[in-house]
Amino acid sequence: MIKLPIKTVVEGLLELQESGQSATLLGIGPMSKNCVQATLELSKEDDYPVMFIASRNQVDADELGGGYVNGWNQFTFAQAVEEVATEIGYDNLYYLCRDHGGPWQRDKERNDHLSVDTAMELGKKSYIADIEAGFDLLMIDPTKDPFEIGKVIPLEVVLERTVDLIEFCEIERKKRNLPEIGYEVGTEETNGGLTSTETYETFILKLKEELEKKNLPMPTFIVGQTGTLTRKTEQVGTFNFKNAYELAQMAKRYGVGLKEHNGDYLDDVTLLEHIPSEITATNVAPQYGTEETRAYLNLAAVENRLLENKLIEEASNIRETLLIHAIECERWRKWMVGDQKDLTVNQILNSEDIDLQEDILDIAGHYTFNDKEVKKEIEKLYSNLKKHNIDGRRYVIDHIKRPIRDYAECYNLRGVTTRIKKIEA
After folding, report:
1. CA–centroid distance for 277 within its chain
2. Distance, CA of 243 to chain centre
3. Measuring CA to CA, which residue among 158, 116, 122 is closest to residue 140?
């Protein structure tokens, strides 16, 4: 299959909106190789393109610290996706995308309060690896400034850094004689985020002006705030249909798609509203990691039943291992609310608050899938179940497919690749 550039896919979607055949693309966080396989299987079965949106914490160059997902750097990530695609006979369109690229986008860089120059330099090194590994879309997000916590970063600063980074990436891409790539700009964050239609249009107009001066391409997506917000393992935001529709129309006037972030755990009514509101794409990530954790816990419950009935000699310790590693990784802090995010690891490990520990396991279990001890217990779990005709890995993949399928159905994705190709023919 000839791979259409992602910009062509988005332009096709914007055109389909005019004929009532619109769809909203899914940007899926590659939380594990199981998640990658679940995504590609559904894309193949139902004929639609998918985007894998990798943050710098998830996938990054080894010299910058690598990623917590399978220890992937950009090249091993690309290779892993290709291996899965080959294994399942994949014949559709997938796109490797950088989610939240740029300065201070690794937790350590922000916590270390790196200077602007150092943070920009590291962000650029990461982008070079993205480009060389064949990424199709780069998100340019210079809004995670550790010196502006709680403040609104001036729009001029965001614009200047955005244009600087796009120009850098284009120079590096052309040096290597590589195909065109798409860009995503803006952010869902409230500090520096595009939260109102007025700010959104001002940003687009000024960005267009600066990009044209340097003969640089307009972005493929501009992120806008639609009211979505993920905390713990819930959608705590309120989807704003009117705002979403207005932002989408504004972006479309400039040939750009509206991208929504924090699209996890949305109910069916909200999902169905995405088609008439003409949101071009939604990012969903932690939800699929949480679903994989829940799948392992379901399998562990079956394993315990086998042990109770003396059908296996020894059960895995998957639940306890996941729990301890989830607490110790401390990545749950990002998703907690109130004072809970300030608790120490020891306080939680020694706490009698079972609900708190359950929350952290649900939130942060997926951050630990690549830990050696966790992998060992997963293999033991699979082995025990296999003796009694349960394919644990197949169950995990199918479990992850359920929420992806829910979104794809509501987003009218079935057959989108064929619809776009008819436009391009």
Report:
1. 21
2. 23
3. 158
Q: Could you tell me which of 410, 422, 408, 425 has the C-alpha nearest to residue 48?
A: 408
DSSP for 139-171, written as a single string: EE-----GGGTTSPPPHHHHHHHHHHHHHHHHH
For residues 97 and 27, give the distance between their C-alpha atoms in angstroms, rounded to a whole number.
Answer: 8
| Measured torsion, CA atoms of residues 209, 212, 217, 220, in degrees rounded to the nearest 10 | 20
Q: Is 390 left (phi over 0), alpha (psi -120 to 50) or beta?
A: beta
Measured N-to-C along each axis, helices 416-424 and 6-18 cross at an angle, to the nearest 10 degrees, of 90
Question: Strand 234-235 to strand 257-260: parallel, antiparallel, or no bridges (unpaired)?
Answer: unpaired
Closest by CA to 265, choosing from 284, 250, 278, is: 284
pLDDT tens column, 256-315 = 999 999 999 999 999 999 999 999 999 999 999 999 999 999 999 999 999 999 999 999
For 250, the token pair is 């504004």
Is residue 148 within 8 A of residue 113, CB to CB? The reply is no
Looking at residue 196, the DSSP 8-state letter turns out to be S
Residues facing 283 on adjacent strands: 27
Tell me the pLDDT tens digit for each residue of 3-57.
999 999 999 999 999 988 989 999 999 999 999 999 999 999 999 999 999 999 9
| Domain chopping of the chain, boundaries | 6-285+407-424, 289-399
Tokens 């160059």 correspond to what residue?
A: 61
Cα distance between the two ends of the chain? 14
- CATH number for the 6-285+407-424 domain, one of 3.20.20.30, 3.40.190.10, 3.20.20.70, 3.30.300.210? 3.20.20.70
Rg value, the chain, Cα: 21
Closest by CA position to 145, among listed 118, 182, 168: 118
The CB-side HSE value for 267 (13 A sphere, CA atoms) comes to: 5
